[in-house]
Amino acid sequence: MVINSGDTAWVLAATALVMIMTPGVGFFYGGLLRNKSVVSMMGLSFLAFAMVSVQWVLFGYSLAFGPDVSGFVGNLNYILLHGVGLDAGVWANNIPALAHMIFQLVFATVTLAILTSCVAERVKFSSFIVLGLLWTTLVYDPLAHWVWAGGWTAQMGALDFAGGTVVHISSGFGALAIALVIGKRIGYGASYIMEPHNIPMSILGAALLWFGWFGFNSGSALAANGLAASAFVVTNTAAAAGALTWLAASWLKGKPSTMGMASGAIAGLVAITPASGYVDTSAALIIGGVAGVLCYGALLFRVSRGLDESCDAWSVHGTGGLWGAIATGIFANPAVNSFAGLLYGNPHQLVVQIIAAGAALIYAFVLTYILAKIVDMTLGLRVTEDEEYVGLDISQHGEKAYA
Predict the structure, then answer these.
(1) Domain ranges of the chain
(2) pLDDT tens-place string over residues 256-278
(3) In whole angstroms, how far apart are CA 256 and each of 245, 261, 324?
(4) Which one of 134, 211, 236, 298 is CB 3.0 to 4.6 Å from 319, fit for a cystine?
(5) Distance from C-alpha of 34 to C-alpha of 170, rounded to nearest angstrom
């Protein structure tokens, strides 16, 4: 097939949109922390983009999208992007292989940025470099292969249009595992006040995420066509529904929370991600609306259990991604993209979605826990008590967010 210039232009534009999500995560998380660790938190997102960009070019893309090895991972045929060039590639014959590679690269970078939620204000920067590289290579890359490159869940018929399992379940439940290993911040839930220092910064981050998500989901059509337009519309619809239901739920417990509204929008975006190429707008309203309430409930549960998963990757991304993966099996509409879910006479699709989501959850949680334990026992994940008290901006970087 001849490369389509319009499709190529859209995929490259979508790549730029998704790229802005990684600093968006940094803004969102940074505003939720105390002002002595803002530079550190935003720096972790910047690190995620730079480090994974190099890893992806060296061998990450090959592990994810190289020729299949036992349904689990790709081989190293594409190491250093060998054979990935200006001509059409294996996974999209309407755009250059390099366009597909760079589009998938920004997915990998934002996933590691989401994972940083669990280590806020207490991780050694050097140790996270090692953990982040191991996690992207051993957790993210195989999961991407399972779903998008002919791996075993794809062979089973699992649907994940833009990364509900690959991105959100992996980072959300991976964050939960690391939080259990690294432990709470000093004084968490006791004497110290740990309120967000800059809610406007977090809302700006949420806005950047919403903006970038149009590229995330709509760009996953890999073409400038009607499916991309449909994914664009359902993405916005689910985000708005999630924002409103989280707002309503928080209002019932006191005052309407603007931070809750922003979090609800992200919950809706997360949940619609796997379904965005398979469902219509009415389903998007339900998926996003349920996600807002469900993820808010998960946050309340986390707080009640005293778990310091600081910026709620598990509550929003893990829980929302799991719901979205299952919802895809319920609401997939053959009028959108030929695949039918439970409501359209195919209960088997729901079973497949549950199996695939469950497998991703277990794989991400267990392997991340093991990797975090290894890094903690060898290098140590946490800074010292004095360094944590001073704040990571000074102790890890010698910089201040605010003079």
Answers:
(1) 5-381
(2) 999 999 999 999 999 999 999 99
(3) 11, 8, 25
(4) 298
(5) 27
